[in-house]
Design brief:
Length: 199
């Protein structure tokens, strides 16, 4: 497998798991991942937020980690990347106000490149005008917002062409597995008997 070059959009109070887990997991299977944010350069960081589900009417939000950024989104060329990851959290509500973010998202859809979005991330896709005619999911509280952008709602992780969406970080296993399929990433496991023979 030849690794892909993947872009991940972040900003202050991006959801901690939703930015960190795909960043690390995609690297683990051989892809190169760059995290970018508006107006943040290499070596700077964004603050993350942890969204926890404890039986309340909505998630509980607490301060997470500092997450290092590889470049400012204004300084990269999206044509250099093979795929895009759009995490959720609080960040999408203001990231969608940046033309650089919206233009970057549109590039991936115009070029039919793989895109994975989760939780509140589809708010950015709605603002970019790329959801019309799609079947997607998102955090349930933003369902009406994304539906008004022209998509059909699906409960659970869904792949629609080049787009993979999930509702929140508990969807990570299925969401990332479907994204790896869209990327064409194949993970092969050695049979247990063969592994034992090597010991």
């Amino acid at each position: 497998m030849t690794g892909k070059k993947i872009l991940e959009i972040a900003g202050d109070f991006v959801e901690d798991y939703e930015v960190m887990v795909p960043y690390q997991a995609l690297q683990m299977v051989g892809h190169e991942v760059h995290a970018v944010a508006p107006e943040k350069g290499d070596g700077e960081s964004v603050k993350t937020a942890v969204h926890d589900f404890r039986g309340d009417q909505t998630y509980l939000e607490t301060r997470g980690h500092d997450f290092a950024i590889d470049a400012a989104i204004e300084d990269i060329d999206p044509a250099d990347y093979d795929a895009l990851v759009v995490p959720g959290g609080r960040a999408p509500e203001y990231l969608r106000t940046y033309d650089s973010v919206l233009d970057t998202v549109r590039h991936f859809f115009d070029a039919d490149k793989p895109v994975a979005a989760i939780c509140h991330g589809p708010q950015i896709l709605a603002a970019a005008g790329v959801l019309d005619g799609r079947s997607i999911t998102a955090y349930p509280a933003v369902r009406h917002e994304v539906e008004r952008a022209g998509c059909s709602w699906v409960d659970g992780v869904v792949t629609d062409g080049n787009l993979v969406t999930g509702q929140a970080w508990p969807d990570h296993p299925e969401w990332l597995a479907q994204f790896l399929d869209v990327l064409g990433t194949r993970i092969e496991h050695e049979p247990a008997a063969a592994a034992a023979d090597d010991d």
